[in-house]
Write a structure and sequence with these properties.
The complex is a heterodimer. Chain A has two domains: 2-222, 3-Layer(aba) Sandwich (Rossmann fold), CATH 3.40.50; 255-288. In chain A, 33% of the residues lie in helices and 28% in strands. Chain A contains seven helices and 15 strands. Chain A has helices at residues 36-52, 67-76, 94-112, 132-140, 196-204, 255-269, 273-288, and strands spanning 2-6, 9-11, 17-18, 25-26, 32-34, 55-61, 80-84, 115-121, 143-155, 160-167, 170-177, 180-184, 208-210, 230-236, 246-247. In chain A, strand 6, helix 2 (67-76) and strand 7 form a beta-alpha-beta unit. By secondary structure, chain B is an alpha/beta fold. Chain B has helices at residues 45-61, 74-86, 105-119, 130-143, 233-239, 257-266, 274-278, 309-315, 344-365; strands at 32-36, 38-39, 42-43, 65-71, 91-96, 123-127, 147-148, 153-156, 162-168, 173-179, 185-189, 206-209, 222-228, 242-246, 269-272, 299-303, 320-324, 338-340. In chain B, the strands form four sheets. In chain B, strands 7-11-6-1-4-5-12 form a seven-stranded parallel sheet, with helices on both faces. In chain B, strands 15-14-16-17-18 form a five-stranded parallel sheet. A three-stranded antiparallel sheet of chain B has the order 8-9-10. In chain B, helix 3 (105-119) packs across helix 4 (130-143) and helix 6 packs parallel to helix 9. Classes of the chains: A alpha/beta, B alpha/beta. At the A-B interface, helix 3, helix 4, strand 9, strand 10 and strand 11 of A face helix 3, helix 4, strand 7, strand 9 and strand 10 of B. Strand 11 of chain A pairs antiparallel with strand 13 of chain B. The complex binds flavin-adenine dinucleotide (2 copies).
């Protein structure tokens, strides 16, 4: 089966700094990584391929330097990488992103064989909307399986997939037909180490690079800023709270005295916490009887 | 390339939608809608929180507030409609069909997009739950409109547009996003971010029923089973009145027991900062913060947590925050209300003793 995995290159957010005066994000020198959630999608795709045969194509839309992430994905064992890059894509919101990606996935299918499963991450760590997966599924008319914790069964003969999906208050066991779009939940698997052979292959691999035209994007007006219904009007820093915490206790107090002082302060300041706790304690005592 | 916020809009050849030029056919779109998440016989609290927020937007716009109820059992949905009115809705749109008994993307997307195309709302809000996030992306894509995720503030600007503010880059900045020239303007909001509105008993409204117009054979995805969580701290943590949490300052998984001990005496839920999940000291459903749960308890006790911005955004809705930290300069002291500057490994057991003493002494006396 032919599987496509969508990965996004994101700034390593642990290292992002905000300029104190201009409130802009200082990206210079911030290293980029594959969106961590996408690694679960990639690993799941590789496992399916190893089990069922077929190929894994990784796809990213981004600036030319996003090639780094694709090369990394090849190191882990992906068979092929496609970079979608064009100034028409700049400034895409999720609607425009899913439009460009789904056009490219169609083209990938036409070029290297029909796509049975598209994988995406649960969400990214920068945009963090979780909207691109459902967007791709809707545009391609694929059955949509989000927050998948486990893939129980894939029957390529019958074209049936069975998964466990995280839902509110429980797990849904769903069965649907191929082709599907799956977003993987974090922690559902552990990324393999790349083998030496894949690393060597990845270093020299040719990465297919498509602009909008090469990817067969039907309408560039639906891409990038022009194709984005959302408009970012303002970016600003949160207002800090005026007062700092009041420190409880005096020097030399024992821990018992500190704890008592804290409790008194909580009860004095909050209108209902003490009453709630007494009610809870009384209920507990009832239970013991 | 896709991170537009910090770029200035280009005047020529740039984003078409930077100025408001609402196409004629969208001008008839009116009223504020909230998708009511109704599952397993109950409304998800986030939907009621959104009705509270939606009420304010509708009043500002001078329009009506509607709740959308879709599900399998008509009688149950009618009862839920009453709950919507009591939380501020003027009317409820209702689609009852056995096909909608359990959530599935395809029929729910059809139900919502049909309602939107028929009745034309200007704003549509959904909870950012696993269900809401699965649904919102499909609905927005089908309608080809804008969707702003995980908003923390919703307002109406001078041009009658929805100004949806959301945290970016882990909460270190906020951005305000508009959908100027498409309708409806869609947004999701995480549970507990908005306050629960006061329930107004006896408040009533109207019901507008609509057919689904779909057959089970048309739906490809089947729900084979639903395995309910045994102890669903998903909801419990977000809605707990008291939460006790620990951070790396506790130094070991064993010491985390001190947090659980205090939580037990207080009838509280317990949680922690993200590194504890990564170290495996707690499960991920107990992580508090930007990428975990947002909590809004009456009392939040944070022991050995520094108060990084990603943690802060998840706890700021608490009535009262008590920080226990050895460092008087820890960032958490900038937003906590009370602080004990001392070793949490000593303070936590002392608090456990103090509370159990106080609560039981008075119990005997009274
Ligand atoms: C701070 C900030 C806030 C934003 N808020 C919004 C908003 O509220 N609404 C909105 O419509 N847009 C928003 N955007 C724009 C949005 O981030 C971009 O459209 C982005 O290209 C995709 O969205 P995401 O990062 O949220 O991806 P998500 O929807 O969270 O990503 C889910 C999965 O889709 C796949 N994927 C996503 N992007 C790509 C890509 N470029 N290449 C390959 N695979 C990909 C990955 O598998 C990923 O794990 C925002 C951007 C920023 C920087
Ligand atoms: C994209 C992204 C998303 C994130 N999402 C989240 C999230 O959802 N939730 C979250 O919590 N974090 C999140 N983080 C991580 C966050 O940035 C911080 O790294 C994390 O919150 C720090 O955890 P901590 O406070 O437990 O540890 P530290 O920052 O190491 O703080 C430990 C604190 O304990 C104090 N201490 C040490 N010894 C003692 C003692 N004996 N008694 C009392 N105090 C003591 C220290 O003074 C210090 O203040 C995210 C990060 C990123 C990049």
């Amino acid at each position: 089966m032919h599987i496509v995995v969508c990965i996004k290159q994101v700034p390593d957010s642990a290292q992002i700094r905000v300029h104190p005066v201009t409130n802009t994000i200082m990206r210079q020198g911030v290293p980029t990584i594959i969106n961590p959630y996408d690694l679960f999608a990639l690993e799941e795709a590789l496992r399916l391929r190893d089990r069922l045969g077929g190929e894994v194509t990784v796809l990213t839309m981004g600036p030319p330097m996003a090639e780094d992430s694709l090369r990394k994905a090849l190191t882990f064992g992906a068979d092929r990488a496609v970079l979608l890059t064009d100034r028409f894509f700049a400034g895409s919101d999720t609607l425009a992103t899913s439009y460009a990606l789904s056009s490219a996935i169609k083209k990938i299918g036409e070029t290297w064989g029909p796509v049975g499963i598209v994988f995406a991450g649960k969400q990214t760590i920068d945009g963090d909307t979780a909207q691109v997966g459902p967007g791709i599924a809707t545009r391609m008319g694929f059955n949509q399986l989000t927050y998948v914790a486990a893939i129980c069964d894939v029957d390529t003969e019958k074209g049936i997939v069975e998964v466990e999906r995280r839902a509110e208050g429980g797990v849904q066991v769903l069965q649907t037909k191929l082709p599907v779009l799956i977003t993987m939940l974090e922690g559902s698997n552990e990324m393999r180490r790349g083998s030496l052979t894949s690393a060597l292959r990845a270093a020299n691999a040719e990465i297919t690079t498509w602009n909008a035209e090469a990817a067969g994007v039907p309408d560039v007006q639906s891409c990038g800023l022009r194709g984005s219904p959302t408009v970012v009007k303002r970016v600003f820093a949160p207002t800090p709270r005026a007062e700092r915490a009041e420190e409880i206790g005096k020097p030399g107090m024992s821990f018992e005295e500190l704890a008592d002082a804290a409790m008194d302060e909580i009860f004095a300041r909050h209108p209902t916490v003490e009453a709630d706790l007494r009610e809870f304690a009384a209920g507990q005592q009832e239970e013991w009887r | 390339m896709t991170d537009a916020p910090q770029k200035k809009p280009q005047p020529a050849g740039g984003r078409a939608g930077m100025r408001k030029e609402l196409p004629e056919h969208f001008k008839a779109y009116r009223h504020v809608w909230v998708f009511i998440e109704y599952e397993h016989g109950a409304i998800h609290p986030v939907s009621l929180e959104l009705l509270g927020e939606g009420r304010k937007l509708a009043d500002k716009l001078g329009v009506e507030l509607a709740g959308l109820l879709v599900g399998g059992d008509r009688e149950e949905l009618l009862a839920a409609a009453g709950e919507c009115w009591e939380h501020g809705a003027d009317l409820t749109y209702l689609i009852a069909d056995p096909i909608l008994e359990h959530y599935r993307n395809q029929p729910y997307t059809k139900a919502l997009t049909d309602l939107v195309n028929t009745f034309k709302p200007e704003i549509l809000l959904l909870g950012a739950t696993t269900l809401g996030r699965d649904l919102a992306g499909s609905v927005a894509t089908t309608l080809a409109t804008g969707l702003t995720a995980d908003c923390t503030e919703l307002a109406i600007d001078d041009e009658r547009s929805l100004a949806a503010t959301r945290p970016t880059f882990g909460g270190s900045l906020l951005c305000t996003i508009h959908t100027l020239n498409f309708r409806p303007q869609m947004a999701t909001v995480r549970p507990r971010v908005m306050a629960m509105p006061q329930r107004e008993a006896g408040r009533t409204g109207r019901v507008v029923e609509h057919p689904l117009d779909m057959r089970e054979e048309d739906i490809v995805t089947k729900v084979l089973r639903f395995i309910a969580d045994r102890d669903s701290n998903e909801v419990q943590l977000a809605y707990a009145d008291i939460v006790v949490a620990g951070g790396l300052g506790l130094r070991s998984a064993e010491n985390f027991q001190l947090v659980k001990d205090l939580a037990r005496v207080l009838g509280a839920e317990y949680g922690g900062s993200r590194p504890l999940v990564q170290k495996g000291w707690i499960t991920s459903d107990r992580q508090i913060g930007q990428t975990g749960k947002t909590i809004r308890p009456k009392l939040y006790i944070a022991a050995g947590i520094s108060g990084a911005i990603q943690h802060r955004v998840g706890v700021e809705g608490a009535d009262m925050i008590l920080a226990i930290n050895t460092d008087p300069n820890a960032p958490i002291l900038d937003f906590a209300h009370l602080a004990i500057v001392a070793d949490a490994l000593e303070v936590l057991p002392a608090l456990t003793r103090a509370f159990s003493r106080r609560l039981s002494v008075n119990r005997l006396a009274g």
